[in-house]
Structures are given as C-alpha cells and as structure tokens.
Amino acid sequence: MAGIDWQQVEEDLNSYGCAVIPRLLSERACREYVAAYDRPDLFRSRVIMARHGFGEGEYQYFAYPLPAHLQRLRATLYPPLAQIANRWYAAMEIATRFPAAHEDFIARCHAAGQTRPTPLLLRYQEGDYNCLHQDLYGEHVFPLQAAILLSQPDQDFTGGEFVLTEQRPRMQSRAEVVPLQQGDAVIFPVFHRPVTGTRGIYRVNMRHGVSRLRSGHRHTLGVIFHDAE
C-alpha cells in the first residue's frame, strides 16, 4: 500500500465521486478471502438480501477480532482517507473531524454504542444484484469506504458491475459504472460528498450497488470504517 498515489485518489474522488486503487490485494489474498466465506467462526451474522428487499445474493459481517490482514487493511487505509474526509467536511461546513488513527475513531464509535464490526464479504451468483443503498449504521459515520473485487471478471463471472449514483439537487441523477479487475479496490462516499457548482460548494447524495450477474460467482470484500449499533 506504500505505492498508492493518494493525491490521485483524492482528485478522482473530487472529480468523479470514486477512485480505483489497482491491485490492492494479490490474487492469493483474494482467493483466501473467498475461501473464508465458508468459515462461520469468522463472522457475526449472515444476511440474505431478498429477505430484506436489498436485492438478491448474500453477505456476512466479520466478527471481532478481525482477521489480522483485514485489521491491518482497515487501519492502513484509514489515515489518508481521514485527511480527505476532513477536507470534505470543512468544505461542506460540517463540524465533525476525524482523528488520524483508526483506533481512535473506533473508540469514538464504541463510546456511542456502535460496537459491532462492519467489514463484510459479499457473494453473488447468476441473477443476483445489490440494490442502490448507503451503509449507515449509527450516529458516527466515516464518509468513505472501500470495496475490493475478489473474483476475476469474464473468468469467474460476467455482469455484476459496481454502480454509483449521484443525486444532485434540482437535477437528474448521474450514474457511474466502475470497471474493476481482481484485487482492485474502489474508494467511494458512504452517503454524500462536496461538489463545486456555480454558487459554491454543495452536497450531493451518493448511493452504490451492483448490477445483475449474468453468469458465475462474484465475491467482494467491503471495508467500512465505522462500526454498527
């Protein structure tokens, strides 16, 4: 992760509402996460999307303690993203600021009763999809998150594109389809981001989802930085 161009990440987030980090995870690491899906001891809960109107497919939330690699990933991605988040909040005139270390932000979450870990693994098969949504789990929300594709497009699955929508005030929504390869991460807003318009900076509301899988199986690792109530 030392080679990540965080300036480019921030520029892409400001321009497009998302940024891709190529090959954040190795092929081996991706395979290990996919295999972990069938280890119930690693997870605190399993969600069948259709039961809740979320789409088709399923996902599992990791339990504490997180696997060591996932814990390092969460802690390492957070600090540069916190700098971006603080600049965003200053631009949107939101008083909240985020500490430099992830452990300090998690302590803030836990003090407010948000104690359940939110990193998750998602699994889709042919015909599955994820409705547009926002990952809000309590009062304390970190405004950026990451999704890492663990499967190889056109080899393990077809279809299943990552989709973002931007709901602009008094304007029609804008969609962004993000092409990813195995191991790539997409960084994107949890719920809103600042955009510069003719009258200054305003907030746009963001949602994300996954389009219908045409064939095969698709696995994704979701890295959310706030914990849940």
From TrEMBL:
Pfam families: Oxygenase-NA. The keyword Lipoprotein does not apply. GO terms for molecular function: metal ion binding; oxidoreductase activity. PROSITE patterns: FE2OG_OXY (PS51471). Residues 115-228 form the Fe2OG dioxygenase domain. Keywords: Iron, Metal-binding, Oxidoreductase. Belongs to the iron/ascorbate-dependent oxidoreductase family. This is Proline hydroxylase. It comes from Zemynaea arenosa.
